[in-house]
Amino acid sequence: MLHIDPESWVPPFEQLRTQISDQIRSAELPAGHRLPPVRRLAADLGLAANTVARAYRELEQAGIAEGRGTRGTFVVGPPSDDDELRAAAVQYARRAAEIGATPEGALDVVRAALTQGVPGSA
After folding, report:
1. Residues 25-67: tens digit of each pLDDT
2. CB atoms near residue 77 (< 10 Å)
3. In which element (H, E) is residue 85 found?
4. pTM exceeds 0.85 for this model
5. 81-98 vs 49-61: helix axis angle to the nearest 10?
6. Which CATH class, in words, describes the domain spanning 12-75?
């Protein structure tokens, strides 16, 4: 079941993308499974259709979903670790650009986080 937390600082499209990706990784949504139509899922979750469409596009860009025109969007398979890292990097790069960080500054922050370890990780 998908749920969007309107109080979260995480944008709704990212909450949706992450939840679907997690369900694909856990095989709850197996390869070949058809995802709900954009408009129906948007209505069910109280989101704009563009928000759901963006989440689906990001899943397609990560290579774990495939849009087949009017037939819908289908699960291709679970994301690899590289797919997940790439998706996280894209999100980070977008946010860094939004706040005006330079590429060098953004990379320095990532290097520091990797060197110091990430709180809450094992």
Report:
1. 888 999 999 999 999 999 999 999 999 999 999 999 888 899 9
2. 16
3. helix 81-98
4. no
5. 130
6. mainly alpha
